[in-house]
Specification:
This protein has 12 helices and 10 strands. It starts with a helix and ends in an 8-residue tail after the last helix. Helix 2 packs across helix 3.
Length: 307
């Protein structure tokens, strides 16, 4: 609209000060202008809208007309919004506010919600968006810059990342209660390889670790395996007696406590890996992302279940 395009803050400030003081000369003093300059601003404003914005009362003071009151009310609301915007921009610039997308591999979904809850309590002005997926999904998100930070096991080679260890990540062998391996005094590789193994899907870091373990103890010997699409399905499959699994301890803490799963004593198990928090090496971290990264690093393994 042409009226809005012709409207200026100088005109609105002049209207605001004259309405507050009732005097053009006093308004001019407050605005560090001459009275004729203030008068000119008001005349331009009235010419733009084609109506009077001020009128004199019986004492000679300037008071707002209905039209002037409507315009001044809008100006004052705009001023309040602008003040809030300035505060928001300042907070964003200083890293006190913003949105951070945190990608977590699916094995981490058992502790990640608690970590995000801690972050929101500590930094309520920072919105932390949690995205969960398998290893390949999170790496793809890093490549596409769809996430700001990631929590996973072994850092990827590509894209190049800056990674920080935040805690141990043990993997344990789990069997159902009453399983025959629990009666074996010393479990040998042959005992393990004779059992059907339940593996995660392609692209899972847990699957990669498990297959490397089986190849190492079996020297390439074939073994029976069944693929499942999630840790939850694997746990239920083991409980049902469909096979055994090498799985992250952090996914089975409740089942081990309750006795629904058992972790037999096996040489070289648990296999100890590390959890990392990482970001792209070529990424300049905004203030909010730096604050979230610093918080996660400071926690170390405080948010992880203990073996």
């Amino acid at each position: 609209m042409k009226r809005l395009e012709s409207l200026t803050f100088k005109q609105l400030r002049a209207l605001d000060r004259v309405a507050a003081t009732g005097s053009i000369s006093r308004a001019a003093e407050m605005l560090l202008l001459t009275p004729p300059a203030v008068h000119a601003q008001l005349k331009a404003l009235e010419a733009n809208f084609g109506c009077e914005m001020l009128q004199r009362d019986s004492h000679g003071r300037f008071i707002l007309t209905g039209e002037g009151a409507a315009l001044l009310g809008a100006y004052q609301r705009t001023q309040a919004d602008l003040r809030m915007a300035v505060q928001r921009i300042d907070a964003l610039h200083k890293g006190l506010a913003g949105t951070v997308v945190l990608g977590v591999v699916s094995t981490g979904k058992y502790f990640a919600p608690g970590l995000v809850a801690q972050l929101r309590r500590t930094h309520p002005d920072i919105e932390v968006v949690l995205k969960v997926g398998n290893r390949n999904t999170i790496i793809s998100a890093l490549e596409d810059r769809a996430i700001d930070l990631a929590i996973m096991g072994r850092p990827p080679r590509m894209p190049a990342v800056t990674a920080y260890v935040i805690g141990n990540h043990p993997h344990v062998l789990v069997v159902p209660p009453g399983h025959r391996l629990l009666d074996v005094p010393r479990i040998d590789p042959e005992d393990i390889l004779n059992e059907p193994f339940i593996l995660r899907e392609e692209g899972s870091g847990t699957r990669i670790l498990c297959m490397r373990f089986l190849d190492r103890i079996g020297g390439g010997q074939p073994y029976e395996s069944v693929e499942m699409g999630s840790n939850e399905t694997i746990k239920q499959a083991v409980i049902a007696g469909l096979g055994i699994a090498l799985i992250s301890f952090h996914t089975v803490t409740e089942e081990l406590r309750a006795g629904r799963l058992i972790a037999p004593v096996v040489k070289d198990i648990p296999i100890m890996r590390s959890w990392f928090v990482l970001h792209r090496q070529d990424q300049t971290l905004p203030g909010a992302t730096e604050r979230v990264l610093d918080f996660i690093r400071a926690q170390k393994d405080g948010f992880l279940p203990k073996l």
